[in-house]
Write a structure and sequence with these properties.
Elements (H helix, E strand, L loop, with lengths): L1 E3 L3 E5 L5 H8 L2 H4 L10 H18 L3 E6 L5 E8 L12 E6 L8 H16 L4 E7 L3 H10 L2 E8 L4 E9 H9 L1
Antiparallel strand pairs: 1-2, 2-3, 3-4, 4-5, 6-8, 7-8
Length: about 180
């Protein structure tokens, strides 16, 4: 499965994406607001990649590699997942993204996530999609705002006691934005 936006190609993750993901996951600034803020080593990144690939087979959705169409570089990932780390929101499907710091500030996260919202609502028939961010992650808050994903409530991730904001968009809200 591959789809394109104006500047990006989104495709299922593959084993050969490990180098790009491991580099991104080893960056303290990229990982600053992820779970407890710890970086991940190559072995942890490989285990995460295997899970991401497996989730597609089990759920029929998952995370997409984000490639720049012009260069073919993997900028990071964006996609849909079940947020098992936050049991109080379940059942739910979350949209999330993580980009290598070199690709921040270009609008790639919003562009890719807009395509994934369309995939979730139109191709997978979801009724609601949430997005979860650390309360201090203003960059992700801006992406959510651009996408029409509205603040719902604040809570704490049980495992790490990190404060997070939960945002959401329904299929009806998404379709109204598309029509508008």
């Amino acid at each position: 499965m591959v789809f394109r936006t104006d500047r990006l190609s989104l495709r299922r993750l593959r084993d050969d994406d490990l180098d790009a993901l491991a580099t991104m996951n080893a960056d303290p600034e990229v990982m600053r607001y992820i779970m407890d803020g710890s970086v991940r080593d190559r072995e942890q990144s490989a285990a995460g990649l295997r899970k991401m690939i497996h989730d597609w087979d089990v759920r029929g959705f998952g995370l997409f590699a984000v490639e720049l169409r012009e260069t073919g570089e993997v900028a990071g990932w964006v996609g849909l997942a079940v947020p098992e780390f936050l049991p109080e929101v379940l059942p739910a499907v979350e949209i999330g993204w993580r980009l290598d710091q070199r690709f921040w500030g270009h609008g790639y996260a919003a562009e890719a996530a807009a395509g994934v919202l369309r995939f979730g609502f139109e191709d997978r028939g979801l009724d609601r999609i949430i997005s979860i961010r650390h309360v201090d992650n203003v960059r992700s808050a801006r992406v959510m705002e651009k996408l029409g994903i509205s603040y719902a409530f604040r809570t704490v991730v049980p495992e790490h006691q990190q404060p997070v904001a939960v945002h959401e968009i329904t299929r009806e809200q998404y379709l109204a934005r598309r029509r508008g």
